[in-house]
Design a protein that fits this description.
Helix content: 10-25%
Distance between the termini: 77 Å
CATH topology of one domain: Uridine Diphospho-n-acetylenolpyruvylglucosamine Reductase, domain 3
Number of helices: 3
CATH class of one domain: Alpha Beta
Largest sheet: 5 strands, antiparallel
Strand order of the largest sheet: 1-2-5-4-3
Number of strands: 5
Shape: elongated
Strand content: 15-25%
Mean pLDDT: 84
Order of helices and strands: HEEHHEEE
């Protein structure tokens, strides 16, 4: 209210909450951490959650250990890579694209083709 008692603006509790914690959304149709490539592979950020990757791509990466792609790769390599490296976890092949500050920031991932048995 201004000095004359007129309302100049209104702030809701939701406005305050959004300023403190950011906007909440339930839309999971688009994930900024997973980027599909023309060749069928996906460039995935190291901070991406394993369960979200599995859900978004229909993959079956192990969820009983690390929670992020970075953690999963480091667990399987058993050491921090000094440069680019490739590995396979289950049916998923991974190529480390970028490492920054002891963190795998991105990796190209794709599923190994499964041949149908007759």
């Amino acid at each position: 209210m201004d000095e004359y008692g007129d309302v100049e603006g209104l702030v809701t509790l939701e406005d305050i909450r959004e300023e403190i914690v950011g906007e909440l959304t339930t839309d999971v149709s688009e994930d900024d951490e997973i980027h599909q490539q023309d060749d069928g592979s996906h460039v995935i950020e190291g901070t991406a959650n394993i369960r979200e990757i599995n859900k978004m791509l229909g993959w079956e990466l192990p969820t009983d250990g690390p929670k992020t792609l970075n953690g999963l790769i480091l667990e399987h390599l058993e050491a921090f890579p000094e440069g680019p490296a490739c590995l396979q976890i289950g049916n998923t092949r991974m190529e480390i694209l970028e490492i920054r500050d002891n963190l795998i920031t991105s990796a190209r991932c794709w599923q190994k083709l499964r041949l149908a048995r007759r």
